Structure formats: structure tokens, C-alpha cells
């Protein structure tokens, strides 16, 4: 059967006065129900734009979209806005980094979740929706839901607000959940609690989940598969264990080198990879990562600066990498330069 979400050769380009911004440039991936995909990369790598494109949030903007986004077999890119709006908040839901920006300050948390339910289920009474809201608040670990339901967002702590937003996202049992930096604004202890909660909910609800993050600790905790993005493209993709223990692409090495012993460590933070992310208007020729890559002299004939590498199978067929290094040389470099750190 086809995967639940299939994104194929997605492009999101924004025309600007300075030129065309290629935010997403030929991205292909899929996620099944019950599966979590982690999309990781620096800011500006195209990961948030990807999730917005799936949700159809670029409608009416100047963005040029191409490729295909199929959800349960249905093409979303040319779906009428009214049908897309029907899917958003019901079949597809989103958890944002900053609940305050997603919640209205003048309405109680309960009223907003009730509204989220009734927008998609006009036949549910306010009373029934409020009962369901209390259940949801309890389910995401908010103590005393009967009182909390009538409080305003500013009366919640950051962690409780994030729980409330997860409750809102779950209000209509979404089968695709997209979480964009879901724990970035929270302190470390609360982050761990929210990740635990999301993992529990994943098992309970079995939705397809996309977690977008710059934090490899979050990916290690949550994801089954990882997609590493650089300059709008996938540069490495594969099962989380393969990517963590046998990363193939020098950019991924850079991302991982801040993680002690390349081990799965909760809350490991990223050190920035040296150098700056590229311009998305004048993307470097060849491999977009080449200005920052310490290993390109290991590729003969200057191919790194002239030839765009393809995304090809590495060791296993489901582990893909976009890099000109020969497999043997890559393994050797990883063993001698990267792993011992
Ligand atoms: Fe580095 Fe070349 Fe591989 Fe790009 S293709 S990551 S520049 S070695
Ligand atoms: Mg972002």
C-alpha cells in the first residue's frame, strides 16, 4: 500500500526582488501511520517551510509550489482551499514552538479547544465539547482540568501551555501530526516531560508524526526515521539508528559531533556546524555544503564544487546520502576523524 503521507519532489520557491529563494528544492519522503519522522537541520534549511507546504499554509502567498503531497492517496497541492481548511485541525494538526502565538490571549484555553472541536463537528454541543476538552486536558497531564479549562493562556506555565496546545492539536484525533520545534522554548526538565507525553500519545493514537527540530536529542527520543535537510534538500535520510551510529554525510557528522560519544543522550544540544548556512538565492554550485566541508579534497576532480550529488543508497538501501565521497573513503574518514571525538 502507498504510505499515508507521500511527499514527492516538493519545491517551494519564493520570488523576491533579489531573486528566487529556493526554500525547498526537490524533497521526497514518506511517513506512515504509527511512524515518526524527524526532520533536522539548521534554521533556513527548509524544514518549517516543508511543514507549512504540507498544511497548505502558503496558499494566497507568492510562493511557487511544485511536486506532490499525497495524504491517504489524495493530492493536497491542488485541493481547493475550503477542503484543505476542513483537513487542517482535524485530519492534520500542528504543534508549534510557541503556544502563545497559536493561542488567543483573550479566550480561555477551554474555549479555544471547544472551538477547535466545534469548527469540525458542528453537531457536537458546547457542553459535550467542554467535557471532551477536560478529558483532553487530563490526558495530556494537566492537573485539575475542571478549573484549568476556564483559565486564560497567561495563567498557564510554559510547559502547561505546551500541553494545552498538544490537547488542542489532538482534539479531533488527527492522523497526521506535525510538531515544529515542540520543546525548544521549554527548560530541559519540561522538555523531557513533553517528549515523554508525545511518545505516549504516539503509541495511543497511532498517527503519523513529523517532528521538525534543530535538536538531535529530540530526534533520538522521538523518531523512527531521520531526514537531514540542507539548503532545501535532503542530504541524508534513514532509520534513526543507522543515521546516529553510522552517519554518512559530512554535514550530519558536524551536527552529531556535539553529541557525546555519538550516543543517544537525552537533551544533547547541537553545537553549530562551523561556517554559515548558504544563501537560498545563490545556492553554492555542486554540493551546497562544499564551502563548509572539511572533506572535499577526498573527492577527486573537484566534483564537490561542480556536480550536485544525488541522494543515493549508502550501506543499507533505506539509508540514503547525498555526497560524492566513495563509500570506503567515507567509512575511513568517519572512523578516524569523526568517531573518536
Ligand atoms: Fe563534502 Fe563533497 Fe560530500 Fe559535499 S559532496 S559533503 S562537499 S565531500
Ligand atoms: Mg523553523
Automatic annotation (TrEMBL):
Localization, UniProt: Cell membrane
Species assigned in the record: Arsenicicoccus cauae
One GO term of the biological process aspect: peptide transport
Ranges of residues in domain ABC transporter: 5-256
Nucleotide-binding among keywords: yes
Annotated keywords: ATP-binding, Cell membrane, Membrane, Nucleotide-binding, Transport
Keyword Glycosyltransferase: no
Assigned protein family: Belongs to the ABC transporter superfamily.
GO terms for cellular component: plasma membrane
Database matches in PROSITE patterns: ABC_TRANSPORTER_1 (PS00211), ABC_TRANSPORTER_2 (PS50893)
InterPro entries (alphabetical): AAA+_ATPase (IPR003593), ABC_Ni/Peptide_Import (IPR050388), ABC_transporter-like_ATP-bd (IPR003439), ABC_transporter-like_CS (IPR017871), Oligopep_ABC_C (IPR013563), P-loop_NTPase (IPR027417)
Protein name according to UniProt: ATP-binding cassette domain-containing protein
Pfam families in UniProt: ABC_tran (PF00005), oligo_HPY (PF08352)
SMART domains: AAA (SM00382)
Bilayer disposition of the protein: Peripheral membrane protein
Recorded GO MF terms: ATP binding; ATP hydrolysis activity
Amino acid at each position: 500500500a502507498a504510505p499515508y503521507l507521500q511527499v514527492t519532489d516538493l519545491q517551494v520557491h519564493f520570488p523576491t526582488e533579489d531573486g528566487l529563494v529556493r526554500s525547498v528544492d526537490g524533497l521526497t519522503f514518506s511517513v506512515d501511520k504509527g511512524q515518526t519522522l524527524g526532520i533536522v537541520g539548521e534554521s533556513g534549511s527548509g524544514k518549517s517551510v516543508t511543514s507549512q507546504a504540507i498544511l497548505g499554509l502558503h496558499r494566497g502567498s507568492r510562493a511557487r509550489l511544485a511536486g506532490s503531497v499525497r495524504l491517504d492517496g489524495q493530492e493536497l497541492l491542488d485541493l481547493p482551499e475550503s477542503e484543505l481548511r476542513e483537513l487542517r485541525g482535524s485530519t492534520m494538526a500542528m504543534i508549534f514552538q510557541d503556544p502563545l502565538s497559536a493561542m488567543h490571549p483573550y479566550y480561555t484555553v477551554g474555549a479555544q479547544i471547544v472551538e477547535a472541536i466545534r469548527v469540525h463537528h458542528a453537531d457536537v454541543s458546547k457542553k459535550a465539547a467542554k467535557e471532551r476538552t477536560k478529558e483532553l486536558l487530563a490526558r495530556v497531564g494537566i492537573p485539575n482540568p475542571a478549573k484549568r479549562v476556564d483559565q486564560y493562556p497567561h495563567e498557564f506555565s510554559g510547559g502547561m501551555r505546551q500541553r494545552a496546545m498538544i490537547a488542542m492539536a489532538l482534539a479531533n484525533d488527527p492522523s497526521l501530526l506535525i510538531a515544529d520545534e515542540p520543546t525548544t522554548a521549554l527548560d530541559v526538565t519540561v522538555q523531557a516531560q513533553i517528549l515523554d507525553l508525545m511518545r505516549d500519545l504516539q503509541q495511543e493514537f497511532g498517527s503519523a508524526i513529523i517532528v521538525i527540530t534543530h535538536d538531535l536529542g529530540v530526534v533520538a527520543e522521538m523518531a523512527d526515521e531521520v531526514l537531514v535537510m540542507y539548503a532545501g534538500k535532503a542530504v541524508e535520510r534513514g532509520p534513526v539508528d543507522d543515521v546516529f551510529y553510522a552517519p554518512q554525510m559530512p554535514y550530519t557528522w558536524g551536527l552529531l559531533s556535539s553529541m557525546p560519544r555519538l550516543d543517544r543522550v537525552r537533551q544533547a544540544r547541537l553545537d553549530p556546524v562551523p561556517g554559515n548556512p548558504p544563501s537560498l538565492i545563490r545556492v553554492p554550485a555542486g554540493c551546497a555544503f562544499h564551502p563548509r566541508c572539511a572533506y572535499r579534497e577526498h573527492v577527486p576532480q573537484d566534483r564537490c564544487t561542480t556536480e550536485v550529488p544525488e541522494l543515493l543508497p549508502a550501506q543499507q538501501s533505506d539509508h540514503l546520502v547525498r555526497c560524492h565521497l566513495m563509500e570506503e573513503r567515507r567509512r575511513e574518514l568517519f572512523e578516524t576523524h569523526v568517531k573518536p571525538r
